[in-house]
Design brief:
The protein is mainly β. It has a domain of about 80 residues: Immunoglobulin-like. The protein contains one helix and seven strands; from the N terminus they run H-E-E-E-E-E-E-E. The strands form two sheets. The protein has a four-stranded antiparallel sheet with strand order 1-2-7-6, with no helix packed on it. A three-stranded antiparallel sheet has the order 3-4-5. A hairpin with a 4-residue loop joins strand 1 and strand 2. The longest helix has 13 residues. The radius of gyration is 22 Å and the shape is elongated.
Length: about 140
Amino acid sequence: MNRSPPFDSPLLLGFEHTRSLVERAARINGEAYPPYNVEACGEGRIRITLAVAGFTADQLSVSVEDNQLTIVGAREAETESAPERAYLHRGIAARGFVRGFVLADGVEVSGAVLEDGLLTIEAVRPPLARSVRTVPIRTVL
């Protein structure tokens, strides 16, 4: 059975970009590391919290480009001069990551804080101004 995407309806005009956003979000959602929370904090505020234990602020970067929020954690490879460790169990991830979020139009990232192994990113969606206008109808003679 062929199932058409929801944004292919002839009643939804100008939503071509929305389809690409949904496809991009589906690709981003594939990776599960690092774990994160997304909270609605009222008044159009959004808080994203990532568990980044072991990363310093210098090893993390947060950027926004074309409605794409990207968080990168880059770990330096252990050098050969570092003493070898004999782990009995290694459950703490020691790998870098790239985590992305697609932002809606108008959403602005206002800041990021690293505290107690949690990276918290604050974003704000300004309230949308509702507008109604009347379209004049011309008559053709």
